[in-house]
Design goal:
328 residues, alpha/beta, 4-stranded parallel beta sheet, disordered N terminus
């Protein structure tokens, strides 16, 4: 993110507005929990849990869902997530989608998250975890730009706080349904990604992000699948093509005129059909396909565009991101 994500702490606004109906009792931490009586014909809300690294864009992601009509609760203690879902169920459909931001600001309650997730699973609540990731360099830059300390750095450095937070969130990141790396994204690009994943009226079977990148700038940390296009000749060494990108028709035609290029695209598309079927069986809704070449300007860009078009033609909702185009 090119703009630092200011993580607010206004838990009270959303949480206070979700009061239980008459007769409901909830556990506020002061005593033992009392089960809320079941509600006939209750509609269990859809739940999204937003978490990730401080400064990686949690507040922006939450604001995007709020703009899409989700009921958003910031910094809710994890132990209260099942209660929040139950209150939503009591709203008779008025609160159909809930997003909860969980982060290290509530670290006293963070150990309860695993128990809350198990409780939701036992109650057959559909939940998704969105994890916002970013590189150490990007996070340090954002914190320094606004002269704010990292919430876990204590008397140490910003990098110490980042390292402690990564370790604390490691298991949650592994459980995430969607990981978004915001290292090279600005606020508007992050919002576009969130819109692409959550703006639809109906939940598609599978959503894909096809991302071109340059190997010399490092692998995308949120990639599920990585494709290496460096087996094709590099248009960089063709003087008349060097200034252009893979979005240019001449570059794309050159790339796919090379031996093996079209055959690779055909066979990889078939392979993705097989992988997509497996993802659906396993309940995975999101996949990020990273397509790389040396600099992320020619071959990877042209291939990403073609591959995304193939996926879209098969009914897969697809977003294309060119991570490194323009860096040269």
């Amino acid at each position: 993110m090119s703009e630092h994500d200011h993580e607010s702490s206004d838990t009270g606004t959303a949480a206070d507005s979700a009061q239980p109906e008459h007769g409901a009792q909830v556990n506020t931490g002061a005593g033992p929990a009392v089960d809320t009586p079941s509600v006939p014909d209750a509609v269990i809300p859809e739940l999204v849990i937003i978490s990730g690294m401080s400064g990686a864009g949690r507040s922006t992601a939450a604001k995007c869902l709020e703009d899409l009509g989700w009921f958003v609760v910031d910094n809710l203690p994890p132990a209260l997530i099942p209660t929040m879902v139950e209150l939503g169920a009591r709203s008779q459909g008025n609160v159909a989608r809930i997003a909860v931001v969980v982060d290290v600001r509530g670290r006293r309650f963070f150990d309860n998250l695993r128990e809350s997730l198990a409780d939701l699973e036992a109650k057959h609540v559909t939940r998704r975890i969105v994890f916002l990731e970013s590189s150490d360099e990007a996070l340090v830059r954002r914190f320094e730009s606004v002269r704010r300390p990292h919430p876990l750095q204590g008397d140490g450095r910003i990098v110490d706080g980042i390292a402690a937070e990564r370790e604390l969130l490691r298991e949650l990141r592994g459980d995430a349904d969607l990981v978004i790396d915001t290292s090279s994204l600005n606020v508007h690009e992050l919002r576009a990604k969130m819109d692409a994943q959550f703006a639809g009226e109906e939940e598609p079977e599978l959503r894909a992000t096809v991302m071109s990148f340059g190997f010399k700038y490092g692998l995308p940390v949120d990639a599920d699948l990585v494709v290496d296009m460096r087996f094709l000749p590099n248009p960089h060494w063709v003087p008349e093509l060097r200034p252009f990108t893979g979005l240019n028709e001449e570059v794309s035609n050159y790339v796919f005129a090379q031996p093996g290029a079209k055959e690779f695209l055909d066979r990889y598309t078939e392979l993705l059909q097989l992988i997509a079927a497996g993802y659906r069986r396993e309940g995975k809704r999101y996949v990020t396909i990273a397509v790389g070449c040396t600099g992320g300007k020619h071959r990877s860009v042209a291939t990403s565009e073609k591959l995304a078009a193939r996926l879209a033609a098969q009914g897969v909702e697809t977003v294309v991101v060119h991570r490194d185009m323009g860096r040269e």
